Each structure stands twice: as C-alpha cells, then as structure tokens.
Amino acid sequence: MSALYTAVATASGREGRAVTSDGKLDVKLAHPVELGGDGAGTNPEQLFATGYAACFASAMQLVARQQKIDVSDVSVTAEVGLLKNDTGGFGLEVTLRVEMPDSIPADAGRTLLDATHQVCPYSNATRGNIPVNLVVE
Questions:
Q1: Which domain holds residue 103?
Q2: What is the spatial distance between Cα 19 and Cα 46, in angstroms, rounded to a whole number?
Q3: Model confidence over 37-69: pLDDT tens digits?
Q4: Same domain, yes or no, for 51 and 17?
Q5: How many folded domains does the chain comprise?
Q6: Same structural domain, 33 and 4
C-alpha cells in the first residue's frame, strides 16, 4: 500500500517550535501550566486532539454520505489526556465527544459513530494502543 499523502513536520521538543515542511504550520510549543510550564504555546496533546477531531469529523462525513445521513451540523471534540504509565513513561487517553443534530435518532447516531471509528485513520492507528472513549452528545 502506498501513501496517498505524507505530512512532514519537525519539532525541537515540548519547548520550542514545530514546523511543517511546507511552512503552513509553524507553532510555538510550551509545557501547559498544569505540567509546570508557562502555557505560552501549544503542546503535542492539543495538536493530537485537533488532528483527531478533524480527521474523525471528516471520516464521519464520508460514512454518513454512504449511509445517506446529513451530518452537516455534527461537531467533534477530542479530549486527549496525558497519563503516567506503570513503567515510568507516559501514555495517552482520548475521549471523542460527537454532538449529533436532533434530526439523527440516538441509535442511528451511535451506529454512525461506531462505523466512523472503523474508518478514521486516527482511530485505526490508536486502536489497541490507547483507550478511546466514544460519546454521543
């Protein structure tokens, strides 16, 4: 299988900068206040949350089109938690909160959410590696 698209980014660590090869993303990185930093920049967890939310929303649009469901008013919020693990390292946990329009019945919304979780590249990359909690709101 060959890549349809490859993003390239370079970072100098949690304090510094992260820049994509095309220059479209150039952000200051900083530890969040909760981890003892000044919070004067973004952090990897925020970037991951942003990417996962955007990717999941796009995957949902694809799945919904196939199922002939209108999700133009759907909103996806990703919460990414940084955790200490038992071996002295760190891990992540994710909660995806999907706000469905009232026009989508709860059972159909849940089915759509579960189908999207099978299609989304972020979901496929994280499956079995980190806990991902799917919440319909």
A1: 44-136
A2: 15
A3: 999 999 999 999 999 999 999 999 999 999 999
A4: no
A5: 2
A6: yes
Place of tokens 């649009």: 61
Q: Are residues 60 and 124 in the same domain?
A: yes
Which CATH number does the domain housing residue 130 bear? 3.30.300.20
The whole-angstrom separation of Cα 60 and Cα 89 is 33
Strand partners of residue 127? none
Q: pLDDT (tens digit, 9 = 90+) per residue, 83-130?
A: 999 999 999 999 999 999 888 999 999 999 999 999 999 999 999 999
72: left (phi over 0), alpha (psi -120 to 50) or beta: alpha
Q: How many residues does the chain have?
A: 137
- The phi, psi pair for 74, rounded to 5°, reads -75, 145
